[in-house]
């Protein structure tokens, strides 16, 4: 069997396993915690699309998670719309918000990009805090409904399955993006932007589109989170939210997509366990675990597991679309020359 066939079958197997795990999760743990894991998993995958596959570290993604939560809450509270419409409206708002932020940010890289996105996110946090007539200020939006044509979805167990399709659709979209010709171009831009630019790819345009797509997926996760908990607060816009999702991606493995879900599961479950036990220094424990993972498992949890499996002749993450930075999975980035007759930056796969 060829390597490509094994990779395709491995990707399908991982999708099936992930789907089954998502379906049984609220039977194994407290349903609100299960919903938190699902939302943060999508949020982490959205950030990984930008960090692991485009090479841009954003510390401002809380703006899209929290901004969408507020927009979703306002649509549900004052628009009287079913919660699916509110979630889609929140995702659209996050994408629109990302356009000007991304346009002004993607020309920068490294720490400069991270700091600019952080500055924009803090500016939005300040606006939400001051615009009390709309956002509720420090009180936030309370009592966000879960209306869906008269169905009773206030039970967290039932709402988990009502909100899960949005999370799964977002994860599937991220998985498809990184496996598409567009995703391959993003990897080539991340690995060598100068070479990609020389081959005719509009680097800033690709980065901006990746930024907007990442924001839309983050907004979807934030909208489901807001509806599931019935409130939207300033905590969702604060910089610690961005830091937490970055930690989840690094814990699971940068550039793996699947790693973000694992990191989300570890962090959310640990926080819930410590909070239930009455422990107040949650940040100390999660920070210590983060340091240990970074020092001992440089590829993250999922990245390390995949690396060990490959050394034994297996490939559990063949369908992830790539590996973490510097791994063989991303080193073979496709920066194909522009075919004759095609638009600048278009590959044969993109023109089809």
UniProtKB/TrEMBL annotation:
**What's the protein's topology in the membrane?**
Multi-pass membrane protein
Q: Which UniProt keywords apply?
A: Cell membrane, Membrane, Transmembrane, Transmembrane helix
Q: Per the record, where are the segments of Gly residues compositional bias?
A: 316-326
Hydrolase listed as a keyword? no
List locations, semicolon-separated. Answer: Cell membrane
Locate the region Disordered: 313-352
Write down the InterPro entries for this protein, in alphabetical order: ABC_transp_permease, LivM-like
Q: Does the keyword Lipoprotein apply?
A: no
Give GO MF terms, alphabetically. Answer: branched-chain amino acid transmembrane transporter activity
Question: Per the UniProt record, which residue ranges are transmembrane?
Answer: 12-30, 42-64, 85-104, 110-128, 158-178, 208-233, 245-267, 273-297
Gene Ontology cellular component annotations, sorted alphabetically: plasma membrane
Q: Name one Pfam family in it.
A: BPD_transp_2
Name of the protein in its database record: Branched-chain amino acid ABC transporter permease
- Origin species, per record, is Nonomuraea phyllanthi
């Amino acid at each position: 069997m060829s390597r490509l066939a094994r990779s395709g079958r491995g990707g399908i197997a991982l999708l099936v396993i992930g789907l089954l795990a998502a379906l049984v999760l609220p039977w194994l743990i407290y349903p609100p915690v299960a919903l938190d894991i699902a939302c943060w998993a999508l949020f982490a995958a959205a950030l990984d699309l930008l960090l692991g596959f485009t090479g841009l570290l954003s510390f401002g993604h809380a703006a899209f998670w929290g901004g969408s939560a507020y927009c979703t809450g306002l649509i549900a509270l004052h628009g009287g719309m079913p919660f699916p419409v509110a979630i889609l409206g929140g995702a659209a708002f996050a994408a629109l918000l990302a356009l000007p932020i991304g346009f002004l940010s993607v020309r920068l890289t490294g720490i400069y990009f991270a700091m600019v996105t952080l500055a924009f996110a803090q500016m939005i946090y300040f606006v939400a805090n001051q615009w009390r007539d709309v956002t509720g200020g420090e009180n936030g939006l309370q009592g966000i409904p879960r209306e869906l044509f008269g169905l009773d979805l206030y039970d967290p167990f039932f709402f988990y399955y009502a909100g899960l399709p949005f999370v799964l659709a977002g994860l599937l979209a991220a998985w498809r993006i990184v496996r598409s010709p567009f995703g391959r171009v993003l990897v080539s831009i991340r690995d060598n932007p100068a070479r990609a630019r020389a081959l005719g790819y509009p680097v800033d345009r690709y980065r901006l589109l990746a930024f907007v797509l990442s924001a839309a997926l983050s907004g979807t996760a934030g909208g489901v989170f807001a509806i599931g908990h019935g409130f939207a607060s300033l905590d969702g816009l604060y910089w610690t939210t961005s830091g937490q999702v970055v930690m989840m991606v690094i814990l699971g493995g940068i550039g793996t997509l699947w790693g973000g879900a694992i990191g989300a599961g570890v962090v959310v479950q640990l926080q819930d366990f410590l909070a239930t036990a009455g422990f107040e220094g949650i940040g100390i424990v999660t920070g210590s675990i983060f340091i240990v993972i970074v020092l001992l498992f440089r590829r993250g949890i999922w990245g390390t597991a995949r690396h060990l499996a490959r050394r034994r002749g297996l490939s559990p993450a063949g369908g992830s679309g790539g590996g973490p930075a510097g791994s063989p999975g991303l080193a073979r980035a496709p920066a194909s020359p522009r075919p004759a007759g095609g638009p600048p930056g278009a590959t044969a796969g993109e023109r089809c």
